[in-house]
Amino acid sequence: MKQQISVKDLGLVPYQAAWDYQERLLQENVQRKGAARSGETAVSAPVPTQHYLLFCEHPPVYTLGKSGHLENLLLSRQQLEEKGIAFVQTNRGGDITFHGEGQVVGYPILDLERFFTDIGKYLRFLEEVIIRMLADYGVKGERSAGETGVWIDPEVPGRARKICAMGVRCSRWVTMHGFAVNIQTDMGYFSNIIACGIADKQVTSLDREIGRAVPLGEVREKITRYFGEVFEAEMISRDN
Q1: Which of 168, 167, 51 is nearest to 113 (CA)?
Q2: How far is C-alpha 162 from the geometric centre of its chain's CA atoms?
Q3: Does residue 45 register a pLDDT over 90?
């Protein structure tokens, strides 16, 4: 049987609130796995782990991954406050990136033991979902050797630009954090950071690439469909 993934749109939510919600869902799954393995559920049937794909947007925020470098943030704390931009140091992988309105941010909470136990494969699957979505708009998304995320013209000097950043965390094979695709994003925010710690490459957005605005809801629908295809899962929309 296909795994079922609950799809939830959280709307516009502060980064820390979304992080806390992810942590709660992750810990619930970790506890269920631990109870099943310890025999606590021997009397009754074990409660299975649950998969989620959370969508949201965030008010402007720079986030720094656990392997990131603070010097890639080019603003002082005072300047951040003046511009109304939050800053959060996270426990995901990767370096610094920006989240803001006009992005489609996706946080999959998956028990990979029910799919496959390979983080590299998981990241390639996430990239494939975004690559397929971009193809629907005539944009050729690609991978860049040694770098996570989705790029356009990654091998063309001076032309390589990132359209989707990724960073994940995994505990007991349960994932959290995920991807952020620039759709209608104000690209000016990226001038205040060395995005993903990569100084010689640019960032871009879907509307910049195709010259027109694309509804975020439309993009979320496409990502949901391709997520189901790539992970061979049944996607179930939830209102709460």
Answers
A1: 51
A2: 14
A3: no
Q: Give the 3-state DSSP-derived string for the chain, with helices as H, strands as E and coil as C.
A: CCEEEEEEEEEECCHHHHHHHHHHHHHHHHHHHHHHHHCCCCCCCCCCCCEEEEEEECCCEEEECCCCCHHHECCCHHHHHHHCCEEEECCCCCCEEEECCCEEEEEEECEHHHCCCCHHHHHHHHHHHHHHHHHCCCCCCEEECCEEEEEECCCCCCCCEEEEEEEEEEECCEEEEEEEEECCCCHHHHHHECHHHCCCCEECCHHHHHCCCCCHHHHHHHHHHHHHHHHCEEEEEECC
Q: What is the pLDDT of residues 185-217, one digit of tens each?
A: 999 999 998 876 666 679 999 999 999 999 999
Q: How much is the average pLDDT of 94-109?
A: 95
Catalytic residue IDs? 196
Mean pLDDT of 12-40: 90
pLDDT at residue 94, as a whole number: 85
pLDDT at 67: 84
Return the sign of the alpha-carbon dihedral for residues 157, 178, 103, 234.
positive
CB proximity list for 155: less than 8 A, separation 6 or greater: 144
Cα–Cα distance between 190 and 116 in angstroms, integer? 35
Rounded to the nearest integer, the mean pLDDT of the chain is: 93
Phi, psi angles (nearest 5°) of residue 153: 50, 50
Looking only at the bridges linking them, the beta strands covering 202-203 and 86-89 are unpaired
Contacts of 31 (CB under 8 A, 6+ apart): none
Can you list the domains of the chain with their CATH numbers? 3-238 (3.30.930.10)
